[in-house]
Structure formats: structure tokens, C-alpha cells
Amino acid sequence: MPRSQGEIGAAGGHQGDFMTTEPDDASLVRAAAQRGIPGQLAFETLVDRHQLWLVRLLTHLLGNQSDAEDVAQDAFVRAFLAIESCGDGSRFRGWLRVIARRLAFNHRRDSRARARYEEESGLPMSLAGETMTGQLGERDLLKRVLDELAYPYREIMVLRFVEELPLKEIAEVLEIGESAAKMRLTRARAEFQREYDKRGGRRGDTGRA
Asked: Which GO terms describe its biological process (predicted)?
């Protein structure tokens, strides 16, 4: 039996409501795993959703935005090719972070890049949740000291104080035990504080782990 115009309008309204619902990462990962054009479109949505924070993280790890954008693109390509290994997709962000972290490590090892941060890398004015009220000179000093740390220390400091990840998640990203992550963070903080103090930084600005 043909539906009335009112019924059609009501159905169209429900369809419109459904279409405006933002799909979560898990739904997009499942769609991407199906490949084909729908899968590519689903993954493009994931890229749009996660590109900004990933480039920001990699900029802190690599020292400049140009390298960060290149490595981020590589990370997305590898993620798409291995999307089936992401499980149900509910932890896509963490899974992508692990891929990017490995690529960043390889990039620095291969290129031996020690470039300083570009101005737009934007180290936050807080570490471990404590707001910093220092002048711009203090901010620049923090960036310089962090940039000059040995890469394993710099990496864990960025994950803890820039990405603000809990210790358990840091251990997962670094693929080490939680106790080992805690020890590395303690050593990294001590090294950071030592170099910071040598350059005349204000004692206590680095907060607590």
C-alpha cells in the first residue's frame, strides 16, 4: 500500500536525523576494514578526526612541523594497510599513537635530526597539570631544554606532560612495563630539572610526575 505524504515526510525526517549522527571510531574502523570506496571514505573521516593531535604530538617528538606532517602521513598509510589489526576499533587513537611513535623513533634514528622546535610547535604552559605563569623567556627555555634531552627522555616527557597520558597508557605506547616507564620518567624528570636549573630556570616549574 502506498504511504501517505505525511508518512514519507516522517520517514525522511528520521533518516535525516540518522545521517547527522557522528560515527564513532569503532564504526569507522569496521567500515574501513571492508575496503573499497566506502572503506576509503570511512578512513578519510578518521584521518580528519585525528590528524591535528597526531601532527602536534609528532612535532614535539621530531622538532619541526614539516617532518611531523610527513611522519603523520606515513602513520596513517600504515594504519590503513593494517586496519584489521586494530581489533574492534574502540582504541584507534592509542593504536595509531603506537604506530606514530615507532615511526618517529625510526625517523630520528635514521636522519639523526636534532632540529629545534618551530615557533608553532607550541609547548603548553603547564606540566603535570600545574599552570605556569612565567614569561615568554621561561617558555622558550622549557622548549630548548626538552629539545636537547636524549630522545627516550624527551619522548616520555612529551607523552606525560604534553599529551598528559597516565603512566599505564605511556607504558603501552612505549611497549614497556609500567614500572620501567615510571623509572624512565623519573630519570627524565631529573635530567630535565638538572638542565633547566643550569640554564637559570625557576625551581619547581616542572611540576610532579
From this structure: DNA-templated transcription initiation
Of 104, 103, 105, 85, the residue nearest 95 (C-alpha): 85
Q: 78 and 99 in contact (C-beta within 8 Å)? A: yes
CA-to-CA dists, residue 191 to 64, 115, 150, 179, angstroms: 23, 20, 9, 18
Residues 87-140 pLDDT 10s: 888 889 999 999 998 898 888 766 653 444 434 445 554 443 443 334 445 677
Q: Across-strand partners of 130? A: 127
Residue 93 lies in a domain: yes
Domain that holds residue 99: 22-111
Q: Name the strand (E) or helix (H) holding 131.
A: strand 130-131
Q: Which tens digits make up the pLDDT trace of 146-155?
A: 888 888 888 8
* Residue 9 is assigned to a structural domain of this protein: no
Residue 131 phi/psi, 5° resolution? -70, 135
Q: Cell digits for 6?
A: 505525511
